[in-house]
Amino acid sequence: MSGSADLILLNGKIVTVDKDFSIRQAIAVRDGRIIAVGSNDEILKHETSGTKRVELGGRTVIPGLIDTHPHLDTWRSYFRSLAGCSSIDEVLDRVAAAAAQAGTGQWLLFHRFAEPDSRAPNVYKEKRFPNRHDLDRVAPNNPVWLRGGYLTPSILNSAALELAGITRDTPSPRQLVPALDWRTGDMVPSPGGTIEKDPKTGEPTGVIADGNDLVARTVTSYFYHLVPPPGYDAYLENIEARSLEFNSLGITSIYEGHGLAEPVGRNTRAFLEARARDTLTVRTQIATNVHTSGTIPEIVARLDSLPHVSHRGAGDDMLRFVGVSVTLDGACGCLDCVQQKLLQWKGKRWGEIRNGIARVPEDKYRALVWEAARRGMRVTTKADGEAMIDRVIKIYGEVDAEFGIRDTRFVMMHSAFAHPQRHMPRLKELNVLPTTCISFLWNHGMNMVRAYGEDLIHRAVPYRSWLKAGIRVSNGTDAYPWNPFLSLWAMITRTDGETGLQLGADECVTREQALRIYTENGAHLLRMEDDLGSIEVGKYADLVVLSEDYLTVAEENIQHLKPVLTLVGGRAVYETPDLSGAADR
Questions:
Q1: pTM above 0.85, yes or no
Q2: What is the CA radius of gyration of the chain?
């Protein structure tokens, strides 16, 4: 492309991520798209009196990063973090500070006991979690909820327990009785839960835990109902704030493959309003989660209420609603995917709970996928365990034979235990695009080793195998940690965050491969490979200028890289003082 530029970037190391992984020196941009990539002299030919300059000073530029499973709108953003505390006293200091600013009776919400959570409570000097009595000392007039995760319990103070009606007589929820699965809206066998009692007094200690907080929140559901949900304005503000946070991390595009359940409700309205206000600064594609409760005709009726997600979907290159999603099993990290565990595993679950819960019956899943394909809808299926991946391949294959889905690029999310020989050849044939999360290993690696064994975990989240099979795998963070540079480092090193051990050297990828996964492959999943994923003429100027060189910085420091400038369509959506004012807002 020729002509004058409205923005040029000079004197840099431009990592293009084109087919040759070329390195260039400068970039010219006009109307949000790249019109030239080359040497300084070549790019300066596009400069006029109205052209803005960015002097890179040798800094490295990479394409905008694409997170294909982020949960940008998660309400976890409303919880304060406890990460970094090294003692219960430090936890209490943070709770006390929040109480001092809150009104009487206002809920105080916290999460993330450590980074990763699996390090708690050993990261604390006391080697234990706080309890209700600890919290009562610093917040007697407010209900307090320290929200647990896959591996950590929730902690409540006395005010919170009283509001929930939890007393010495409240039994812990039993396993296997029917319970509501909040993701599918259907009934599943309950994973149970624990309300810890003091062995001397019989009173609840404040330490509670769901058997699995991703399936049926059998204990903490009390508190999800008690805590006032964020109103529409707060939800919209959260989307806008998270967009800017993502930009500060170098993320310029996302794929929300599951999590937004309301087709015309608050979620969709808020994203549309952010787009209308031009405050959605991350390119966003959303697949609508379809509940599988009720009868098959009721499921089909839900699909018929979503005409705007058919074919290429409604929207534009900044916000598009495309396709539907369904969840077959839970996450490998919380040990709820349908996957055989070791005989010696000491976990609390038993019976059919022990090896995970299939959350959607096969007949309902088949009907949903068939009827979605009939309506031209792309399907995203969340499947972690091998048995559920078998089901995805079976049903996707049936639907492909009837309707042809290969050009539609159906998606499989999580995909942690996909087998190189058993699954990948057929997934390649069907042109299914997997997205998985290296954060599963970093957050929960040793927990999975204890449950599934080293052999399985050393081939889990198998990036190298996906690439070897010729499949364009992409990476998501599943809400934590969002930092893409930690994910890039973890893909390269496969480091467990709890112990620092390497889990499966054979599945490590190179720096180039990791960057392609986060850019080129993400663009392919978005079906925007002609517009995103590399720094080439004609593509959007979604660019990230880095603090250090991704290709040469010491391996351990990849996780600490930071953007100093992020552009979306040539517009600066994040910049540090080093480059402040150099590009148009």
A1: yes
A2: 24
Distance of CA 265 to the CA centre of its chain: 22
7-64+539-579 belongs to which homologous superfamily?
A: Urease, subunit C, domain 1 (2.30.40.10)
- How many C-alpha atoms does 25 have within 13 Å on its Cβ side? 9
Fold (CATH) for 75-226: Diaminopimelate Epimerase; Chain A, domain 1 (3.10.310)
User: Domain segments of the chain: what residues?
Assistant: 7-64+539-579, 75-226
Q: Which residues of 209-222 are buried (b: 16+ CB within 10 A; e: fewer)?
A: bbbbbbbbbbbbbb
| Terminal Cα distance for the chain, rounded | 24
Q: What are phi and psi of 558, to 5 degrees?
A: -55, -40
According to the model, what pLDDT value does residue 357 have?
82
CA separation (Å) from 303 to 84, 299, 306, 379?
45, 7, 5, 11
Q: Are 306 and 324 in contact (CB under 8 A)?
A: yes
Alpha carbon 160 to chain centroid, angstroms:
29
Please provide residue 553's backbone torsions phi and psi, each rounded to the nearest 5 degrees.
-60, 150
* Rounded Cα–Cα distance for residues 277 and 258 (Å): 24
Query: Which of 147-151, 214-218, 431-435 has the least mean pLDDT?
Result: 214-218
C-alpha 276/C-alpha 82 separation (Å) is: 35
Distances in whole angstroms, Cα of residue 297 to Cα of each of 94, 246, 359, 366: 51, 39, 18, 13
Q: Is 85 exposed, middle or buried (0-12, 13-18, 19+ CB in 10 A)?
A: buried
Q: Please state, rounded to an integer, the average pLDDT across all residues of the chain.
A: 92
Q: Is the pLDDT of residue 311 over 80?
A: yes
Q: Is the pLDDT of residue 582 over 60?
A: no
Specify whether the CB–CB gap between 78 and 109 falls below 8 A: yes
Q: Is the peptide bond before 484 cis (omega within 30 degrees of 0)?
A: no
Two structure tokens written together for 533? 């994923």
Q: Decide if 7-64+539-579 and 75-226 have a common fold.
A: no
